[in-house]
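Inputs:
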Amino acid sequence: MTTRRTGLREQKKQATRVALREAALRLALKDGPDNVRVDDIAEAAGVSPRTYNNYFSSREQAIVAAVTAERESRVATAVAARPAHVRLADALTEAILEQYTEPRDHDEVLLINASPTLRDAFLDAAAAIEHPLAAAIDQRLGDTGTPTARVLAASVAAAVRIALRQWLQPPAAPLATGGLVVPSGSLPDLLRSALAALAPALDAAEEQARQRLQQ
Amino acid sequence: MTTRRTGLREQKKQATRVALREAALRLALKDGPDNVRVDDIAEAAGVSPRTYNNYFSSREQAIVAAVTAERESRVATAVAARPAHVRLADALTEAILEQYTEPRDHDEVLLINASPTLRDAFLDAAAAIEHPLAAAIDQRLGDTGTPTARVLAASVAAAVRIALRQWLQPPAAPLATGGLVVPSGSLPDLLRSALAALAPALDAAEEQARQRLQQ
DNA sequence: AGCAAATATTGCGTGCACGCAAGTTTGCGT
DNA sequence: ACGCAAACTTGCGTGCACGCAATATTTGCT
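Outputs:
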């Protein structure tokens, strides 16, 4: 189950997709994210502007794709790779940390934060883990016929999004919120604490699945 | 804390907002959702096309807004209205069911399903419960400094979105999924079962809050 | 090798979102 | 009552997303 579909065609498609997103990233770093028109990206990648939109449905998507590569799909794979006896909550947390702790280019993070539109696109891209993740969770729970797996996957995606948003946010002015100001910690910490809130739900779902199997 | 801000200005703004969304709905029902241009809506509401986009940031938003009115903000209010001794999970479920069980116009549901773009816009609109809900949950948990409330609110929003999507979906062809085909039930049932998956997480958060208060 | 079906690319046309810089209306202090 | 400042509306210009139909490329088959 590696590369479904035919050969040369798919190869070329992947090539242009990569060409597009790399061109997009290069131009964005050079001229600033707001000074890159999709026509520029298309030209730099050697395709027509119309073709750009056959691959990406917004100007920002290509830039974001260059930064996140295929992280989204790898998360689900990483979950599936964990042994079945590991607690679901742990499997998810570890898989996500694993994927979001790659060697990061500092310039790219700054780039993404430079434009609100880009930041939103980046956060939206994280939502792409939802469907693969739902499949992976469904696999573990063997729980077809109940929306549980889908809801949990969506919740995990939401938690990731929240952690990423917090991470990207400027510490903000400490406008007396009545309490102390929490300095937005490291990304792994943020992800951990966001996912922690969901652990009980994950445990419960897993327990239910176990009981269903036993009876 | 009813109508913050000044008087006549806000009144007029609300009036045009309502005029716009009602015009949008009326035209969409008359001509079909894909045959309504934003210029038409603006004209019907007596404002310039540019002004339309000061109120709604997409063509579909006005139509959706006409159908959902202010349901999104009312959900949070409904949660806050429940007595504090009610289980958080129950308060949320009841509040949501209460808001999504209004007398519904059948035509409007059909309308929304008529166009994929419109359906997506409708589901996106449901995400608007997230922020008010986060505030309401935060209130109950008194849990500032932890992303828990935000994560739970986002998860609830996601669950609602999933339930609504399922509800809107055509029963689909029964392509042997190995098991039996589940006929998408009534909206209340769908909402209940989607939210059920999150109950353990809500309970746990509540329990933690209680312990924090006692010590 | 050659051909037909499947699939990708491209140009064109349309409608849309939104920044910007006038012009207009409303609110408020004096 | 007056007038200034803040907030809202409008027109314009630009870039973008995407449906459609024509064209080009790849593939599998014989």
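Remarks. Chain B has two domains: 8-59, 70-171+179-214. The CA atoms of residues 38 and 156 of chain B lie 33 Å apart.
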